[in-house]
Design goal:
The protein has 144 residues and is mostly helical. It contains seven helices and three strands.
């Protein structure tokens, strides 16, 4: 891209991570967001991250890496398996017997699934932090 007012990458990259936002939803990012970028966002007022389809943090670990753990201890972090359970839940809903196949019923079922997962985590941990750790603990106990 060529334009007279193009902002150099380094400058815009610095501004993006410090511009200030209360909520960050890295919807399609996968293993891209670094510790420094997160710390810059938290310093600029970030309160909640709602993960998207992939784990956004540049962790080497698959599920709960050091960056994710750091974030979970500092701000509210809703893990991807809750915030992005939509299509998996829709498929599960369709496999149930005698369900309504309307936009509203599908949306309500998915919304209730997310609500119930957050409520269950909140019942074990009412803090604004360590939400992901609590949700992972619940999920692992359900698997075993």
């Amino acid at each position: 891209m060529v334009a007279d007012n193009t902002i150099p990458f380094e400058e815009i990259n610095q501004k993006i991570w410090t511009i200030g936002a209360e909520i960050f939803t890295p919807c399609a990012a996968s293993r891209l967001v670094t510790q420094q970028q997160i710390d810059n966002m938290i310093s600029s007022g970030l309160e909640v991250i709602s993960c998207g389809a992939n784990v956004p943090f540049a962790d080497k670990e698959i599920f709960f890496g050091s960056i994710m753990e750091h974030v979970d201890q500092k701000i509210s972090l809703i893990p991807d398996f809750i915030s992005n359970c939509g299509m998996a839940r829709v498929f599960a809903y369709f496999m149930e017997k005698k369900v309504q196949m309307t936009d509203e019923s599908i949306f309500n079922d998915t919304s209730n699934t997310i609500k119930n997962a957050i409520a269950k985590a909140h019942s074990l941990n009412s803090s604004k932090t360590n939400i992901s750790a609590t949700a992972f603990e619940i999920a692992l106990k359900q698997l075993v």
